[in-house]
Amino acid sequence: MAIGISRPQSRTSTPEDDVARRLLESSAQLSYDPLTEVDWETPLDENFHGASPEWSTLYGTAYWNELTDAQRKALTRQEAASVASTGIWFEMILQQMVLRDIYAKDPTDDTFQWALTEIADECRHSIMFARGAKKLGAPAYRPHRVAVELGRLFKTTAFGEAAYAAILVAEEVLDVMQRDWMRDERVVPFVRTINNIHVVEESRHMKFARDETRKHLARAGRVRRQIHSLLIAVAAYVIVTSMVNKKVYANAGLDEERAVREAKANEHHKSMMRSSCSGLMDFLASVGLLTRPALFFYKRAHLI
Ligand SMILES: [Fe+2]
Ligand SMILES: [Fe+2]
């Protein structure tokens, strides 16, 4: 569907507007309606994984080696559902932060209209993740109470680069996993479609988040940059540690205590996270957000 993005002749366009206009054009060319694109009808085939097994929090542990193929598949299905549920949690946070950011701004701006487009994308994504998690046979996975309350505070107060860099971290961490899952024939087809839709639409969001982060940082002083770099790192830590809910193990029929213990010590999983987040860390370093206090949290979250 071709939608012309018209602009009043009198306004001079800013670099941010150029980015937003290109994103709007891209969105008009390629966006999805998950309600019709995803196969919701075919019953779940338990011969498939929910995620690439290499991304399982137990892959490479002694416990993983003891599991049957069916148990491994049940586990990755619960893990994929947990990641989707955590995705809903931070999509709700970011929708509110973006909405607060554009409150009472100029609606004729492409940036304003792009921001609303992104919120609309996220709204569809959250419905898609909710349906996907349900179809995977998972209960409601919600983050730890402390994470929920920290998220409540953050979404109500974060602004500028703190909001956009935290959005970027969440989107990048999801993106690297979903790129693998969407191509993986061991993953159940409807989950691959969900991941494909998300990867395509999020690539635009990440472009916007990087752009907004740079734009806001250009106006930020030293103290604000120091405080925000730490806040973003703490947000990243909370996001990453909330990805896979502890209850996935019991729901997949495993011994929760042993699984949690081995997952915590799983060097394979930590190195998957580190290598897939190298691009994100390069970006944060390039804009001066990898301060020493921030690095402490990125290391604890195994992102660097
Ligand atoms: Fe999304
Ligand atoms: Fe997004």
TrEMBL record:
Q: Which domain of life is it from?
A: Bacteria
Return the InterPro entries for the record.
AurF/CmlI, Ferritin-like_SF, RNR-like
Write down the species: Streptomyces lycii
Q: Name one Pfam family in it.
A: AurF
UniProt name for this protein: Diiron oxygenase
User: May I ask which residue range the UniProt record assigns to the signal sequence?
Assistant: none
